[in-house]
Every structure is written in C-alpha cells, then in structure tokens.
Specification:
The chain has 297 residues and is an all-alpha fold. The chain has helices spanning 2-14, 16-42, 46-51, 57-97, 104-111, 115-145, 149-173, 177-183, 188-199, 203-236, 247-284, 286-296. The two termini are 29 Å apart. The model has no long low-confidence stretch (mean pLDDT 81).
Length: 297
Amino acid sequence: MGEILQGSFRTLSRYWRTVLPVSFGIALVTQAVTPVVTGLWLKDSPALDDARDDISAREALDLLKDGLAALGLTTAAGLVGSILASSILTVVVSRAVLGRPVSAAEAWRDARPQLARMAGLLCLIPLLLFGALAVGTAPGLLLFATGTESAGIALALVGSLAGLVAMTWLWIRYSLAAPALMLEKQGVIESMRRSAKLVRGVWWRILGAQMVTVLVISAIAMVVQIPVSVIELIVTGDLDSDTSTTWPALIINGVGAVISSTVALPFMAGVTALLYTDQRIRRESLDVELIRATNSG
C-alpha cells in the first residue's frame, strides 16, 4: 500500500508539467460551477431568504426544489470532471509506469475514443451504488408510510446500514473498472467484469488502499482550507452563514476548491491506475510485458 501511494505522488511530482495543467483545467471548470450557482441562483432565492426564519411547507418545498436543481448542476459538472480526469490522467500514469513521458495533447488523443464509454461507466456505477442503498432503505420507509412509525424507522436504519455495506462492496469490486476500460479498450460491462476479476481475493487490500487515499485527499483539503478560511475572515470579517454566500467568500472558497482538486484528481487517478497495474503484475505477469515494451521502445 505504501508503494502504491508513494508511486502516485512520485508520478505527480515527476510529470507535473503534464499532470497539473490537465487537472487544473478540469478543476477550474468543475469547481467554478458551485460558486456561480450559489451566487447567481441560491443566493437570491426567496426560499433561501425565508429559510432563515420560520417557513411553511410550501416554502420548504421551494427551498428543496432550488437545492435539488443546484445539486443537479454541480453533480453534472463533477461527473464531467471525473470522466475527463479518469480518462486523461489514467493514460498519463500508465505511460509513467513505462518511464515514458506523455504530453497533454497525446494523453487527450489516446483518451478521446473512450470518453463515451467512460461516461457510461461513471454513470452506471453510481446508479448501482445508490440503488443498493435504496433497496436496503425502501422496506423501512414503506413500513413507516403505512403508519408503523417506530418499526419503520428501525427497519430503515438497519436497511440503510446494510445498504452502505453493499455500496462499499460494489465500490471496491468495480474500483478498477476505469483503468481497465481505458488501457484495455474494454466496453462498460466488460471493464466492470474485468475489475471484479482483478479485485477477487484482494478485496480488503484494495479497500485499505482506497480508504487511505480518501484520507490523504481529505487531509489535502483540510490543509488548503486553513489559509482559505483565514483569507475569508480577513476579507469578509466573519465566517457566518450570511457572509458565506457573498461573492468574495464564494470566490475565495472556489479558489481553495480548485487548488485542492488540482492535487486530489491526479493523486486518486494515480492510485487507481497503479492498483490496476499491480494486480495485473501479480496475476498476469504484466511486468514481463512491460519490460518487453520498454526494451522495444
């Protein structure tokens, strides 16, 4: 696990001229959506103004509608960013394994034919994950709706825990599907089957690596957030909910999100690509093929 994480950081530092401009461009586009949506839409939403006081059911429904619409836009932007980051950065890391630098233009040329399949993959997997959670929670919610409130709440709680376990299992099972799709030119279903085959027998090890990756990314975000909060406090004079939706605060927080995403995107893509490569080396002697490819190059 340490070698995988170290390898991802090493790739990021060695090929930063290619990796960072790509990840910065993706982060800039995707993270800019949140402050723009908040500043132009939610900030002036009447429902949001009413939410600061006692609100009626109608006003709560309007607030929920505005929130879901904004969430849809930001989620769509995040999905586009994930597709581009997973596609382009996987190509960069796979070339780095061979010690072959690749330019952003070359990475884009290699990744472009697989973008549609990657989009399908990154839409299907979240649907499976949230479907598992919905299936676990639905019986309790239905029981609650019929009037058996205490039993419904208890069943929904147990079902949601079971759904979270199923979500985690599916997440790790298909966590190597993106590099399989990109590097083996697989289809969506074939890449998911390929990931399941590579993960079989080492599920816990893959889970550990992915959890450590999440912790590292969270730490990066926290480190970036400290100076961002200080700057926001200096500029706005306060950090309460009223000032957090002003344009200066939104722009400052947006800059912080871009910085953290610029580092997090290639790091996560690097870990996933290296886990995929490691599993192929262990099971399919990929290292022999890599040596041949290096010698022939």
